[in-house]
Amino acid sequence: RVTTKMASMDNLAGDLRKTFYTDVTHAIKWRTTQLKAIGKLVEDNREALLAAIKKDLGRSPYESVLGELATVTGEVNYACSNLKSWMAPTAVSTPLAQVKGMSSACVTPQPLGVVLVITPWNYPVSLPLNGIVAALAAGNCVVLKPSEMAEHSSALLADLIPKYLDNNCVRVVLGGIAETTLLLNQKWDHILYTGNGTVGRIILKAAADHLTPVTLELGGKSPTYVDKDVDIAIAARRIAWGKFFNAGQTCIAPDYVLVHHESKSALVAALKDMIGKFYGDNARNSEDYGRIVNERHCTRLQTLLEGSRDKIVCGGEVDVPSKFIAPTLVDLGTHGADHPEAAPLMQDELFGPILPIIGVDSVGTAISFINSRDKPLALYIFSKSSSTQQEILDRTSSGSAVINDALMQYSMSSLPFGGVGASGMGAYHGEYGFKALSHMRAVLNKTTWMDLSVRYPPYDMSKLWMLEKML
Predict the structure, then answer these.
(1) Catalytic site residue 251?
(2) What is the pLDDT of residues 59-89, one digit of tens each?
(3) 47 is catalytic
(4) Which of 63, 68, 179, 251 is catalytic?
């Protein structure tokens, strides 16, 4: 069942909670059946999903398979393979005071109840479905609110999900601000939101009214550091791929580059070369290069670019009606001398195919620059030096960190995906998603065949001495 009418949404969370309390979602058989159905949805509707994404983002099928369909399949397979062990109680040790043989203790995962998943437009298939995977693996009912800005993908999911998943436990709500507001007024057992910090704060405030826990994936300006000892060609290839994948509309895309000044000119040249190799002389004609989601975002990026027009060293072409922005490199000069931190491009997450490049004189300067800003969702380090790699890891904070590559952490179900500080709170994917949407219940089981008197009144110091030794 797809809920699109506001009148039918008034108590959607309450309706699903009634289903939840029938315990149907608790069984491993139900969970695995639902997870496999998500995999089947992707398999059966591959071409339709790719076509919808193409309409929304102009993205190539290759990138959509790699960045969306394959990640969903990976999450489903990983969850199905590990769900039995995730659901099993974990035994913990008991102190002497509990007396071995007279007690046992464990931590038992319990479903939370009804989860609200709110997703953005930039990955309009994988983000919704991966959120549902985490919720169902943990044994919850779930309501999905996909982005209205990816209208074709969202409409397709709204049509397909009721055909594959348990309609009594999984619902989809289409719409915009009004529908989202109505959902946020209801009591949920967890909210999983992916998007920008502005909306994230609204969701956090709404959740606070019901003491609802949240997982927020918010993005930010993810830095890339390039050391002077790297293989410039490989670094440029991986940075360019990570940046211009999905036309830069990826929350963990490299947002800007800090490069040792001795390697800066070589890196700029190598990045130009890679852009040409990837997309040809004119990216507008490349089947492998995407488009900006809408004219409003395209105009936003165009305005930012105008503030640094004289510093563009590659690209810069913008066609708002066709939502095209060429892969663009902007040389913002050197830290200290040219004050690149004041440039319009360096104020907020770009979320587009524009890559500012800044020269630094040392790794220490790069670390100070990174630490002067909000904690990012991702940090990329290109260096052959293990001591440099470790120094940056030790002295910075980020949701994730990748050494000598970009974006690839997202594809690993064995790693948590989440932010820190302004880039988000909490994490999911794989077991981390299962735990985020479960309650880890502490269980202590005591026998009754013996009942030591030392803890009971009347108290005396000899009893207290004995108890202190046992605790």
Answers:
(1) yes
(2) 999 999 999 999 999 999 999 999 999 999 9
(3) no
(4) 251
